[in-house]
Amino acid sequence: DSGVTQTPKHLITATGQRVTLRCSPRSGDLSVYWYQQSLDQGLQFLIQYYNGEERAKGNILERFSAQQFPDLHSELNLSSLELGDSALYFCASSGGLAGGLYNEQFFGPGTRLTVL
Amino acid sequence: QKEVEQDPGPLSVPEGAIVSLNCTYSNSAFQYFMWYRQYSRKGPELLMYTYSSGNKEDGRFTAQVDKSSKYISLFIRDSQPSDSATYLCAMSGAGGTSYGKLTFGQGTILTVHP
Question: In the prediction, which pLDDT does A100 show?
Answer without folding.
Answer: 53
